[in-house]
């Protein structure tokens, strides 16, 4: 089934049209990525509006939608109202999670249809990936794996975190990344205790842990991985914490399969860390789904009591963070299957000393 047909299946008593304003939903429906635009989906027709910067790309790449250019003489609201009239739309489902209050008020004032919040339904299809989506995500992960392999030869004492981050970004693009899934996290020494720390001018030293959390876009789909390596040597405590995190991830992976509640996967990993005496130092969830966005649903975390579906793609990233000392996180990305999982991250997970 084409993705636009999935959106059409939402139409009925609640709404007879959809207003797609987020880049992610427009990409999903059109199966093509255009930076700016708005799309209308209805049983009587589908239209995709974008401006002169993207119109040629849209006309050449988008299928299943009539592509129309917006400009000052033909603003989005006018073009949407023409579609509303032509397609007999009375109610439009919209993505409330992606509209500002100002944007919503402007649409409510100008559009000739009632607006109904339908983000949950519109985004729900992205929980389970099609085979072609999985292929894009495997390619994105392969790019991150190759970049990590190259980075192992670039980490040196005397570099700053910012310099290492620049090297990482270069490697990601050089190996085929079409964009970044998010701003990479590159931290060292005591800064590794910050789960989402920001690269600084701190100089990397022997005896440091270095944590790198990064991902790329490939045809719009995200990768995500984290590796923590030691520079020069690792102390006994560093080795203990690292191995605890690794065992926690392996326990989570052992519990990973379609039909298992997200919180059960989280609990399997979390218990290992609790048993080792570090329960107070693992504050975030075990993982999150990803796809067109680096954080999607459903996720294998403590808040999710629903079974994970086959075809969901999620991270597996337990961590331990000791304030003022160091932290460790190890992250892979896996596909949930009926009989377990497929790990699409190939980089080694043993403690690496560079």
Brief characterization of the structure:
With 354 residues, the protein is of the alpha+beta class. It contains 10 helices and 16 strands. The longest helix has 21 residues.
Give the DSSP E fraction (strand runs of 2 or more residues).
Answer: 15-25%
Give the neighbour order of strands across the main sheet. 4-3-2-1-5-6
**Tally of DSSP helical segments:** 10
For the largest beta-sheet, the strand count, sense and barrel status come to:
6 strands, mixed
Under the CATH scheme, which architecture of the largest domain would be assigned?
Alpha-Beta Complex
How many structural domains are formed by the residues? 2
Describe this structure in words.
It is built from ten helices and 16 strands. It folds into two domains: 3-125, Creatine Amidinohydrolase, Chain A, domain 1; 128-343, Creatinase/methionine aminopeptidase superfamily (Creatine Amidinohydrolase, Alpha-Beta Complex), CATH 3.90.230. The model has no long low-confidence stretch (mean pLDDT 97). It has 354 residues and is α+β, with helices and mostly antiparallel strands. The protein has helices at residues 3-8, 23-30, 55-61, 76-87, 101-110, 119-124, 131-151, 161-174, 236-254, 262-275; strands at 17-20, 38-42, 45-50, 66-69, 91-94, 114-117, 185-188, 209-214, 217-218, 221-222, 225-230, 313-316, 319-322, 326-329, 332-337, 340-343. It is elongated, with a radius of gyration of 23 Å.
Protein traits:
Creatine Amidinohydrolase, Chain A, domain 1, alpha+beta, Creatine Amidinohydrolase, 33% helix, 354 residues
